[in-house]
Specification:
Strand content: 5-15%
Strand order of the largest sheet: 1-2
Structural class: mainly alpha
Order of helices and strands: HHHEHEHH
Helix content: 40-55%
Shape: elongated
Largest sheet: 2 strands, antiparallel
């Protein structure tokens, strides 16, 4: 079976889930990615076995006057895929103070 690599956005989303951001809007807020990117990626990650999901109890959502949330959790397979993807996208694995400072490609005259 051919190895599938995670896209950069899927890696960022999986990393967000691994860091405790467990439902769609929370993941969107943390990553800055739109729902049209986050939700399809979460479905693909779940199909690949990288995350599992569970709906919260309806009573909890009803008590808080909102729709039920679907919570995601990284699996062991997802942890391995994330570690590999972070190595591929080294920038994600570096602390902010170690990231290379880049200059704009064009400076105003």
């Amino acid at each position: 079976m051919a190895k599938s690599y995670l896209s950069f956005s899927a890696t960022v989303i999986l990393q967000a889930v691994a860091n405790g951001y467990q439902y769609g809007f929370d993941i969107m807020d943390m990553t800055g990615l739109p729902g049209g990117t986050v939700y399809p990626a979460l479905r693909r990650l779940e199909d690949m076995g990288h995350v599992t999901s569970n709906w919260e109890k309806h009573e909890i959502a009803q008590r808080e006057l909102r729709p039920p949330r679907k919570y995601y959790e990284v699996t062991d397979v997802g942890d391995e895929a994330l570690a590999e993807a972070v190595r591929r996208y080294r920038l994600l694995g570096q602390p902010p103070h170690r990231m290379r400072q880049t200059k704009p490609s064009r400076e105003k005259a």
